[in-house]
Amino acid sequence: MKRIMIIVLLIGSISIFADIYPSCIFTSINPSATGMSLGRCCGGADIWNKNPLDVWSNPAMLGYYEGLSLGYSHDSYLEEAIEDLYFDSSYLVIGWKGIGIMVPMLNNQSKFGTRFDYGIQNVYDEDANCVKLVNPWESSAEFAVGLNLLEFCGVFSDDEGISKLQAYTDLSLGYNYNIITTNNIEYGPSENDNGTFIRESYLDGLGMILRFSPLNERNYSSNYYLKTDFVISLYSRNYSRTSIRSSNSYNPIAFSKDSAASFKLGVGIENLKSTFGTEFYNISTVFCEDIISLKLYTGKSHMDDNCMVYGNGLEFSLFDIVSLRVGDYNDEQGHVEGRTTGLGLNLRYHDLVQLQYNYAEYPGGEIQEVQKVSDFMLNVNLGMIFEK
């Protein structure tokens, strides 16, 4: 019974819906360590960190990907309170010239996409006798597509006006479709022989990202490499308001409307030419585009006007290799609030190969004060390889 109580509390601790707990609440957990370290609500406006797990925040991000990108995470959830809860995700993105497609890949539990494993649990009869052991789980296999309209149109047009427009703005749209499967426990008498039953449903989402970079045109014309980006992200998660069948009814699946904004200020690596010479500049371009960059984030997610959570984040990066992240998260109704922190390590060789590791700590609610997550990303730009 102890584990049952922990899982009930778990639903409350991760819920963005306060006292209203829809089904499949695991779909509201962000698998991206970067997104969780930036105030948990701000990931949709982070277009620079191209990890497939970040697509959870907004499928419109796919319009910014190039090449093949594999994102993978394996986390022991609430490990200080319970031993065998695991949250695993694995996804592959294929991106080219403003078009991105994401498909689920095999995770650590040998399942495709995202899977929340609740561990071995007891099933009791009406006399409180343990009759068997079962292993409940929930999974989501997400398929998504994104299109960066100006980048895509530029492939088919030599119109100089489009090229200039792309220099300082773009608009990306995205759509995701998640196949939801759960294996739940019947607590008490059940007509099912093993006390479990499989339920299936789906959720979908629509996203939009708008970027505006007012200094880019000046950079191209006068080599003034001070970079600024303004980004706005809007995402409707489960906008169809789907439901999933329980033992005797249909329950709504978690949904939300998410919005986020970000601002980036960066000093381009091109500034090293005049200070340190061409040779040092050529070496630096192997692994970075910016000498330093500072990014600010803010976001919110809500089911309705009476149930809303907020987040803010800040990221400082040096030579695009080391990123330090900090933020804050506030969900007064769900009693989850506090500081978020994170670290990112990013190694790349030109635009050909990129390897990334991200780590985050964030408030875990009533069960565990601090929750820890990490993920990996590998990107290979096949287009650049073929051009070479």
Can I get a quick summary?
This protein is an alpha+beta fold and 388 residues long.
Task: Provide structural commentary.
This protein is of the alpha+beta class and about 400 residues long. The chain has a single domain, classed as monomeric porin ompg (Porin, Beta Barrel). The chain is about 15% helix and about 50% strand. It is built from eight helices and 19 strands. It has helices at about 1-15, 35, 150-155, 160-170, 215-220, 270-275, 280-285, 380-385, and strands at about 65-75, 85-95, 100-105, 115, 120-125, 130-135, 135-150, 170-185, 195-210, 225-235, 245, 250, 255-270, 290-305, 305-320, 320-330, 335-350, 355-365, 370-380. It has a 15-stranded antiparallel beta sheet that branches. A hairpin with a 2-residue loop joins strand 14 and strand 15 (about 305-320). The longest helix is centred in the first third of the chain and has 13 residues, at about 1-15. The chain is globular. It starts with a helix and ends with a helix.
